[in-house]
């Protein structure tokens, strides 16, 4: 699983970085995105769902969020 840390970034940067990272994955691979800007979680989730990716799991954490997306 590839990991992407967008800590310190605010929208739209986390979504753009997620898009770029997903484009580099092979079909069936997963990307874990973590960050500290909680509004980005919903934006990343919406982007993934609207572009044919599978959101495997997501959660708000004490310090931010974590989301796993399958290409």
TrEMBL record:
What domain of life? Archaea
Q: Which InterPro entries match?
A: TusA-like, TusA-like_sf
Name the source organism: Methanocaldococcus lauensis
- What is the name attached to this protein's record? SirA family protein
Q: Known PANTHER family for this protein?
A: SULFUR CARRIER PROTEIN MJ0990-RELATED, SULFUR CARRIER PROTEIN YEDF-RELATED
């Amino acid at each position: 699983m590839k990991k992407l840390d967008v800590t310190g970034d605010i929208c739209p940067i986390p979504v753009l970085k997620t898009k770029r990272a997903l484009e580099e994955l092979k079909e069936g691979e997963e990307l874990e995105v973590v960050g500290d800007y909680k509004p980005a979680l919903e934006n990343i989730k919406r982007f993934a769902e609207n572009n044919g990716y599978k959101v495997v799991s997501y959660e708000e954490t004490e310090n931010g969020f974590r989301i796993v997306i399958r290409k």
